[in-house]
Hints:
It is elongated and about 55 Å long. By secondary structure, the chain is mainly α. The protein has 2 domains: 12-102, RNA polymerase sigma factor, region 2, helix turn helix motif (Rna Polymerase Sigma Factor, Chain: A, Orthogonal Bundle), CATH 1.10.1740.10; 107-213, Winged helix-like DNA-binding domain superfamily/Winged helix DNA-binding domain (Arc Repressor Mutant, subunit A, Orthogonal Bundle), CATH 1.10.10.10. It has 8 helices and no strands. Helices cover 62% and strands 0% of the residues.
Amino acid sequence: MPGQPSPLxxxxxxxxxxxxxxxxxxxxxxxxxxxxxxxxxxxxxxxSLLRDAAAAEEVVQETWIALLTGLAGFEGRASVRTWLFxxxxxxxxxxxxxxxxxxxxxxxxxxxxxxxxxxxxxxxASGGGWAIAPGRWTETDPEQLALGAETRAAIExxxxxxxxxxxxxxxxxxxxxxxxxxxxxxxGVTVTNQRVLLHRARVRIREALAARLGREP
Length: 217
């Protein structure tokens, strides 16, 4: 049926399992394929956890080393992607403690836990959406095409400015597409806390877009 994957098309998890089996047999090309598939996601998540770009890259490298050294013990109970994220988060947590950060990674769930509102009530509904939907525009207009690139840049800048916990949750949920349960397990936060952090992050992004692009919500 249209819009549904073909039953003959292998799932990413199946592809990863096959690649890991080839890696166990010493196939270097298989490892390169795994890196090519997951490197972008790992680096994005690492940068969301560690604001320092060099530290993020080091944590990603440590994650790949962990995959190589722990390959024999990987039992496949989780997907390779989830396993890699788990290792990455643990490496980032170790980095936080080692560097003596002022906000330890274990305190993610407590960050920004105040009751102060995070959105302008006149602009946004309580659920985080627009109180009044913005007007539509045509993408055939050159001015609006340019605005699309500007919007993307504004979103990326707004994500970088989020508090640590909000940035991590938003990246894992909205950028990488992880499920709530996976995020809670990775970051050690409750379901309620994850939802609050995600909501506040989304609201901040919307507010930042409205402010940066000078558009009425």
